[in-house]
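Intended use. Records like the one below are meant for learning the mapping from a protein sequence to its folded structure. Do not use them to infer anything beyond what is encoded.
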Amino acid sequence: MKESIERHMAKDLTVKDFLSLIINSSTDLAGENYLLVTYSVLSGATRVATETINYCVDHGFVKENKKGQSTEYSITEKGREFYKSK
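Structure written out for the chain above:
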């Protein structure tokens, strides 16, 4: 999955693309989807990808949880509704 994340972050990532990455990623013990992205991957992201991630966080589509050298993104109910509507 890491290569896929890096590939997506290196191009112009849309909101739908980012939410799709989370939905199709790992699940925790509670069955919630999350995407763990290292700081090195985030630092290599395009400006558009970074703005998309920030937009998703700012508009409540995803929750952001910083963990050591990584950031975990999990989709919210609002994010799921937006994803299904597009």
